[in-house]
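Exercise 4. Each item below gives a protein and its sequence. For each, produce the structure-token representation.

Item: DUF2478 domain-containing protein (Paracoccus alkanivorans).
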Amino acid sequence: MLGWFGLPEGAPPGAADRILEALVRELSGGGLRLAGAVQVNLDRGQNCACDMDIVVIGEENRPIRISQSLGTGSTGCRLDPGALETAAARVAARLAGAELLILPKFGKQEAVGRGFCDVIGQAVLGGLPVLLHVPRDQRQAFAAFSGALAEEIRPDALTDWCRKQLTGAT
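Answer:
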């Protein structure tokens, strides 16, 4: 099963990341075997873009910086696609034995078939439930990618959805 959630328009930046980080803490504390990653944004102060790190679940002391500094006045995308691919490879290497895969989001890289796409496909083919955030501007691409396999979940129901995936309850 492929579960996803969105946030209402106007949600504060980084809200989905904080929701997933709290969910991972809660589920890990309950002894569940999780694979995946969360994004942690590090505030660099007013007038500075945040630094974006991916923390692979189970490798908390080895964050991967996925943002790059482009300099003052730059307007290009700050994502380092190579670093994102490194994160995806490290997540893929940890899928064996997991009960649930949690990923930060289906973003622009995934919309063009990169990033975590292969990891998502591998998990779904292996019967491993997947949960991720889908930003509003990527929902059409996500629908094309996931077809009828995806289920939308309210943000306040994520814990229940995860537990149901693990117990088989409906």
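Check: The longest strand covers residues 34-42.
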